[in-house]
Structure formats: structure tokens, C-alpha cells
Amino acid sequence: MKKIILSFILCGGLVFGQETKVLTLPEAISYALQHKAEAEKARLNIRKGDAQIAEVKANAYPNISFNSSTAYNPLLQETVLPGEMFGAPGQQVKVSFGQKWTSSNMVQLTQNLFNQSVFVGLKAAKSTKEFYLINAQLTEEQIIEKVANAYFQVYQADQMLKNAESNLSITNQTIKIIKGLYDAGLARKIDYDRVVVARNNVSSGVQQLENTVDLTENALKFMIGMPMSQEITLPEQTFEPALLPDRTADLSERTEIKLMNKQLELLEWQKKASEAEFYPTAALSANYGFLGQGQKMPLWNGKDDGVYWSDMASIALNIRVPIFNGFATKSRVELNKIEIEKAQADLRETQLGLDLEHKNAITKLENNMTMIGMQEENVKLAENVLSNTRSNYQHGLATLNDILDAERDLTEAKNNLTKAKLDYKLAEIDLLKSQGKLKTLNDIN
């Protein structure tokens, strides 16, 4: 009994864990922005920008270090000096300099007083972080666009499935009509067999579309980083087209333009960093330490052991003035200018492309709205044709081919309407992208 109860509990937990989630477009976008690797890497790049700023700032702070060196000299260097120095005229005397053991322990401080490359680097690091912030925004917009496209692809597949199921229901109704006529001796056996074959073909198409729905749902779950085991369903009203009253666009607000302008700014800073090599540099350095010398290890011996310690200190101002380096700096500056001009050309081309993208999005939006109206009328007309054809068939005024053709026309009209609605939603996404307003998809149902 305990095992049975435990089995029921586990099964209940499994069913609860597989509960279907109703997923709206804003929820799908929010989930993707939290779980996709691209969004996470963009956030990490922002932290990277903070670290780069801190790294460049370090060059403006004092640098303090401690150096210790202890050496043993088994053979001391000998120098030959005139004997007169030692009371031995006409002779040469060998004299050893130094001690067997020496130990130098020094604290050193250096401080940049003027270094143009450090000042430029600080400003460039700030621009680099701003670049990462804009790039993160662009990454979010790209994720939103991909998720929205995948989201509406699921809707299209689901609507196509519903169309096929509706067609299957219509075909079943036709079978009932033909069967009734056949039983009454008013229809041929071949007519009944043909509608059964048509029903089987439609049923096969329904199965294929069910697989298509599963595939598009899995693609959407992958796009947003959701586990494949999570069952999802989409609210039906989201697929209905919504008119966008504002169709104007300010290209300067496009994230792509902002990013390219920031890239130009970084290239300018790179040029200034190269030009900084023309400037002199000045730095202050200070040293203080102790030097120990003797016949024994100095670190733990003193004067009583024949080791003598003395302190030493120095303060220096180091100035470096560049004079000539073979035109290397001038060449680097010229290369930087070329990169800037190339980036400016790319910016102009991008602006032209974005303007084209906006105009095309408006055209597609208007055309697809017109197409939706036409297809809605077409569906109503196809339904009337099918109804009238059935009635005519019962009175001997139409053939079975007429009925089957009318059913196919109705199915095609419904599928065309579904495609027109999808094309409208995709054009809607393109328009929002061209306006730099993709994030407003969180508010569109």
C-alpha cells in the first residue's frame, strides 16, 4: 500500500511538473532576456567595461613596490692598482672589492606626473563602457526580433493545423451527405469511395501539421532558452493584426546608428592615443632601502658578526622627450585616420540601408493589411460556394468534383488568410525595428 501511495505521489508530481504554460509574447521575450547566453554575455561585457576603466585608472595612481635581493659572491672581483697607493712603488697590487654576502632591500614609489596616453586612455575607457551598454541594448533588440518571429511562426503552424482540422470536419460532413445519398440509391459507390480517400488525405495532412506545430514550439523554446520538457500554449488573440498609428522613424535613435557613432568615437580616441606619443612624459620616482654587506648571511646577522648595514634613499624626476622615431608615430596616426574614414563610409551606408528598411516595412505593412481584408472576404465566399455546391449536388445540379474542388478552395483561402496575418505581424516587427521601438512588443497583443 505504501508503494502504491508513493507511486501516486510521484505521478502527481510529474503531471504537475509538466503543466502547460500559457506563454504571451512579452513573457517569451522576458524569459529569453533572462536565460539566453547572448544576453548574459552582453551583461558580462558591461562588467568588463568597468574592469577596463579601473585598469586604466591604475596608471594614474602611485605605484609602490618592494624589492629584495640577497647574493653570495664566492669569487670577488679583483682590480689591479698602482703600488704607490699602498707604499710599494713600481709594483702593481691586486685588490678585491666587495663582500662575500650582499643584501639589498628597497621600497620604490613611482608616480606619473604627465603622460598624455594615460589621460587619453581614461577617456577612451569610459567610451568603451558606453559602447558595451549600447551593444547590450542592440543584443536585446536582436533577441526580441528573433523571439517574435519564432513566436508568430508557432501561431501560423497552429492556425494551419486548425484549418486542416476544420477541413477534416467539412470532409466528414460531406461523407455523411454522400453516404446518405448512396444508401438511398441516389449516389454512386465510387463517389463515396472518393470522399473517403479525400478524408484520409486530409487526416494525413493534419498529422503532418501536428508535427510541424511541435517543431515550431521546440524552436521557440530553444530561442528563449526554455527546457524542452516544458509544455507551452499561446493565447489565440495575439495573432490578430493591430494597426500602428505612428509610422514615422528617427534613424538617429536606431541602436545600430548609436553603436556605429560610438565606434567612431573610439577610433578617434585611438588616433589621439597614437598622437600622445608626440608628447613628453614626466614621472617622479623615490627609493628608500637598506644595504647589508659582510662575510656572513646579512639577513640575520649584524655588526657583531661582521655584517654592516646602511640605508640609502633617492628621489628622481624622469623626463622623456620624443624627438625622432623614424616616422613610426606619424604612420600610426595616418592608419587611424584611414580606419575613421572607413567607419564613416560604413555609417553612411548603414543609414541608407536603414532608411530603405523603414520604407519597405511601411509598404509591406499596408499591402498585408489590404491582403488580410481580401482573404477574409475570400474565405466567406469560399464557404458560401461550398454550401451552395453541396445543395446543388443533392439536387443533381453539381458533381462530386465540384464539392471536392470547393473544399480545396476553402482550405486554400483559410491558409492564405493565415499567411497574410503572419506576414502582417512580421511586417509589424520590421516596422518597429526600423523605428527603434522593438521593446514595445512587450505591450502589443
From TrEMBL:
Pfam families found in the cross-reference section: OEP
InterPro entries for the chain: OMP_efflux, TolC-like
Origin superkingdom: Bacteria
Signal sequence interval, chain numbering: none
The keyword Flavoprotein belongs to this UniProt entry's keyword annotation: no
Coiled coil: 403-430
Compartments, as annotated in UniProt: Cell outer membrane
Main localization category: membrane
Family per similarity comment: Belongs to the outer membrane factor (OMF) (TC 1.B.17) family.
PANTHER family membership: OUTER MEMBRANE PROTEIN TOLC
Protein known as: TolC family protein
Native organism: Kaistella yananensis
Phylogenetic classification of the source organism: Bacteria, Pseudomonadati, Bacteroidota, Flavobacteriia, Flavobacteriales
